[in-house]
């Protein structure tokens, strides 16, 4: 058996992509954001590399790059086998260091950096095994999966024994779900029709095009003028009808009291969910909004740890669990969240609105179906049509469904040409932009 590759170096790239000028509800990103990512490549003493990234939105990416370089000291010099023999211990080592915890714990830039590195290890592992990450997970044993999870702060909600019971219950029928996914793919929804800044005509055109492509679930940004939110929502309803699903996303725009009023005011749209109506840290606030409006609440893209998700589930704050591939510390922590959601009977509808998030999260949604929930009921994976051309294995969407990749790895390797063009600030795009500024 070939020796396990030893990680010799972690290369990092600050990537910034000038995107079409869209905007979303929260003011923080209403100023012409550029999609961006802190990207890392784990070089090894073999020909195989591991690739990972953490998504950012235009500002501060260099801080994530610095944090990745800082944390990579835990990885460089070790063999893949040393790390993957106990992935749970590795995850705790990367996120639980007594000194790094003062930069968190398990939140902020240091946690985003851990996400990029953990995901890069999974990419490397899957490449060595010559499988996509979703299949690497699918072919593990329940015991191997549980060993990837650090239960320290969640065992009051999900114990290792409970996780094992869920996995062992679903193991006998695993093969049929793998076959189904390979044939039918994962149901998805589109966010691409309803960004702020789109004219009515553009929204109508995009809705018509999406319907023709087979989309049945549509997400609209809200959080602007109340009357205009409702007007735009009714416009989308005119185009998609009432049998298709419409979700609304406020991107943390309101305080709790206003969120209750604004969510209630949008009930004529029959929203399938209201997403991020208030601060993602406000667990009790989301419970109150859910209780007082009766509208399904979706949250997760800015929830920084499994502990946040645990509390949202325990407090009755959440109807839809929107995991994000690199907001928490990568695959390991998301396995914990997905299994917790399965225990609480909460559907996982992953967030994927950014650079590489779609490419990443299809693997995690497959894990949920194969091993955790064993159901696709009320489960849709987000899709946005941004920047897939920069990836060697871009997402493949057919009739509103993700068709799973068979290429080895985590689908996150970025083309060399894109790295050369959009590395910041030395990439050819930014070099020419600064000369013309
Ligand atoms: C701004 C990003 O594209 C994205 O994260 C927006 C968002 O909130 C989403 O749900 O997607």
UniProtKB/TrEMBL annotation:
Q: Which Gene3D superfamilies match?
A: Enolase-like C-terminal domain, Enolase-like, N-terminal domain
| Cited PROSITE patterns | MR_MLE_2
Q: Which reactions is this enzyme annotated as catalysing? A: L-fuconate = 2-dehydro-3-deoxy-L-fuconate + H2O
The record's InterPro entries line, in alphabetical order, gives: Enolase-like_C_sf, Enolase-like_N, Enolase_C-like, L-fuconate_dehydratase, Mandel_Rmase/mucon_lact_enz_CS, Mandelate_racemase_C, Mandelate_racemase_N_dom, RHMD-like
Q: Which SUPFAM superfamilies match?
A: Enolase C-terminal domain-like, Enolase N-terminal domain-like
Per UniProt, residues of the Mandelate racemase/muconate lactonizing enzyme C-terminal domain are 200-296
What EC number is given for this enzyme? Answer: 4.2.1.68
Enzyme class comes to: lyase
CDD domains, alphabetized: rTSbeta_L-fuconate_dehydratase (cd03324)
Q: List required co-factors.
A: Mg(2+)
* Molecular function per GO: L-fuconate dehydratase activity; magnesium ion binding
Coiled-coil segments: none
Print the keywords alphabetically: Lyase, Magnesium, Metal-binding
Name it.
Answer: L-fuconate dehydratase
């Amino acid at each position: 058996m070939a020796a396990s590759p030893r990680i010799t170096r972690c290369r990092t790239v600050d990537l910034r992509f000038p995107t079409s000028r869209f905007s979303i509800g929260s003011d923080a990103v209403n100023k012409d954001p550029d999609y961006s990512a802190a990207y890392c490549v784990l070089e090894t003493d073999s020909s195989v590399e591991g690739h990972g990234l953490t998504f950012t939105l235009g500002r501060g990416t260099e801080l994530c790059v610095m944090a990745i370089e800082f944390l990579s000291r835990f990885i460089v010099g070790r063999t893949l086998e040393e790390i993957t023999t106990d992935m749970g211990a590795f995850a705790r080592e990367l996120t639980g260091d007594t000194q790094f915890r003062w930069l968190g714990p398990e939140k902020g830039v240091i946690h985003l950096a851990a996400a990029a590195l953990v995901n890069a290890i999974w990419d490397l592992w899957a490449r060595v095994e010559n499988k996509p990450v979703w299949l690497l997970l699918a072919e593990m044993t329940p015991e191997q999966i549980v060993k990837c999870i650090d239960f320290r702060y969640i065992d009051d909600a999900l114990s290792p024994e409970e996780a094992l019971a869920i996995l062992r219950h679903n193991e006998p029928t695993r093969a049929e779900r793998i076959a189904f996914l390979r044939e039918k793919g994962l149901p998805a929804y589109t966010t691409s029709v309803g960004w702020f800044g789109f004219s009515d005509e553009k929204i109508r055109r995009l809705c018509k095009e999406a319907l023709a492509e087979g989309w049945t679930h549509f997400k609209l940004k809200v959080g602007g003028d109340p009357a205009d939110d409702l007007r735009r929502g009714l416009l989308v309803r005119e185009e998609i009808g009432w049998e298709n699903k419409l979700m609304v996303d406020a991107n943390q725009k309101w305080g709790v009291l206003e969120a209750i009023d604004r969510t209630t005011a949008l009930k004529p749209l029959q929203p399938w969910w209201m997403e991020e109506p208030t601060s993602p840290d406000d667990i009790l606030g989301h419970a109150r909004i859910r209780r007082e409006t009766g509208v399904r609440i979706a949250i997760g893209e800015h929830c920084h740890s499994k502990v946040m998700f645990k509390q949202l589930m325990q407090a009755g704050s959440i109807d839809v669990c929107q995991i994000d591939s690199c907001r928490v510390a990568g695959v390991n922590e998301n396995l914990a969240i997905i299994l917790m959601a399965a225990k609480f009977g909460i559907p996982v509808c992953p967030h994927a609105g950014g650079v590489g998030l779609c490419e990443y999260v299809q693997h995690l949604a497959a894990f949920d179906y194969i091993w955790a929930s064993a159901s696709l009921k009320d489960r849709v994976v987000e899709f946005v049509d941004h920047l897939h051309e920069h990836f060697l294995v871009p997402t493949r969407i057919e009739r509103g469904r993700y068709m799973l990749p068979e290429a080895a790895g985590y689908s996150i390797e970025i083309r060399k040409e894109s790295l050369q063009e959009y590395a910041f600030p030395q990439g050819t795009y930014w070099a020419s932009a600064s000369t013309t500024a």
